[in-house]
Design brief:
With 339 residues, the protein is an alpha/beta fold. 44% of the residues lie in helices and 11% in strands. Helix 13 packs across helix 14. The structure holds adenosine-5'-triphosphate and magnesium ion.
Length: 339
């Protein structure tokens, strides 16, 4: 993740897209998001950010925090989906020494650590029903006890939550508490998918080229018009994260001064190949297993790009277990270029 919003970088210009220098984009849908950010950042209102994976939910949460008068307080992210239930409770609320077998010393929880700042509850839909009840209570009372403790802890934090699930659906399926849903969605923000704001693609691509030129000591000057046309046509299922990963690889591997079509991944150059082989089978025939392997390889790279190369998540996306994914990556020689 980029460094957040250093004070000196904040432009005084009125254009909202330059007000949040790290949230790049000028499309109407994104400017609408900026408007909400500006309206609510200096309130203590709970905000729920919903959007597909890679749309910039964490970045929006940071914009809310660093644009508010809590900016000198801590921004404390908690990934509710990545931490198992029992651990998550102690992560959030802390515990007293001796509260359970491995509690050898008192530990402060994230709500306590976020005093005068913001707690970012990422993947909030993954919280267990038991923790949902506890969270509701904390949101209402702003006080709690550490696990195994009796002392009431008071902490002044703001909660921003995010999910890539449709939380209303989760409520109607009985998986998420309705009362908690209303508590969290005082202000809802929708992080728009990249395919709904393709006018932002050139700006984002330019931003990422500069970023990776700096970090990889390259001097790529831009993208050819034809290559850009492909980027604009591609549906970007992994959203901005996928674009960022694709640009990173192109900056690293590009032969020329400008990124051209030769540097584009196959799935972007020929999106029709993504779902099925639509071309004619040549007169002389082709090797079925080579074609299938090529197709499989393309899908694996795509899944990895969509998940920031987090293999567990890529395996989940492809509905294979992690070992299978690792085996296939090894077989096809797939690895992240800078690893
Ligand atoms: N508008 C934007 N401008 C610049 N960078 C962006 C923008 N949106 C997203 N990014 C970058 O894309 C990547 C993914 O963003 P982020 O982690 O905020 O997405 P997310 O919605 O939280 O994804 P997930 O649901 O998978 O956690 C990050 O590296 C982030 O910096
Ligand atoms: Mg996120």
């Amino acid at each position: 993740m980029d460094e957040p919003f250093p004070e000196e970088n904040k432009s005084q210009e009125t254009s909202q897209s330059t007000f949040y220098p790290c949230v790049i984009g000028q499309s109407k849908v994104l400017l609408d998001v900026f408007t909400i950010i500006e309206k609510v950042c200096n309130t203590n209102t709970t905000v729920l950010i919903q959007g597909e994976s890679g749309t910039g939910k964490e970045l929006i949460a940071q914009a809310l925090h660093y644009g508010s008068d809590r900016k000198n307080g801590p921004f404390v992210p908690v990934n509710c989906g990545a931490i198992p239930g029992e651990l998550l409770e102690s992560e959030l609320f802390g515990h007293e020494k001796g509260a359970f077998t491995h509690a050898i010393r008192t530990r402060l929880g994230r709500f306590e650590l976020a005093d005068s700042g913001t707690v970012f509850l990422d993947e909030v839909a993954e919280m267990s029903p038991m923790l949902q009840v506890k969270l509701l209570r904390v949101l209402q009372e702003k006080q709690f006890e550490r696990i195994g403790g009796t002392k009431t802890i008071i902490s002044d934090f703001r909660v921003i939550a995010a999910t890539n699930k449709n939380l209303e659906d989760e409520v109607s399926k009985g998986r998420f508490r309705e009362d908690l849903y209303y508590r969290l969605t005082v202000v809802p923000i929708k992080a728009p998918p990249l395919r709904d704001r393709i006018s932002d693609i050139p700006l984002l691509a330019e931003y990422f080229i500069e970023k990776f030129n700096r970090s990889k000591k390259r001097a790529i000057s831009g993208i050819s018009e034809e290559a850009m046309r492909h980027l604009l046509r591609y549906p970007w299922p992994g959203n901005v994260r996928e674009l960022e990963n694709v640009v990173e690889r192109m900056v690293l591997l590009s032969h020329g001064e400008r990124i051209g079509c030769d540097d584009l991944p196959e799935r972007i150059l020929r999106p029709e190949k993504r779902v099925e082989h639509t071309g004619e089978i040549p007169q002389q025939g082709f090797c079925l297993s080579d074609q299938v392997a090529e197709f499989e390889k393309g899908l694996i790279v795509q899944a990895l790009d969509q998940t920031n190369w987090v293999k567990n998540r890529a395996a989940k996306l492809l509905n294979v277990n992690r070992t299978t994914l690792l085996e296939k990556m090894k077989r096809y020689g797939i690895e992240k270029e800078d690893e």
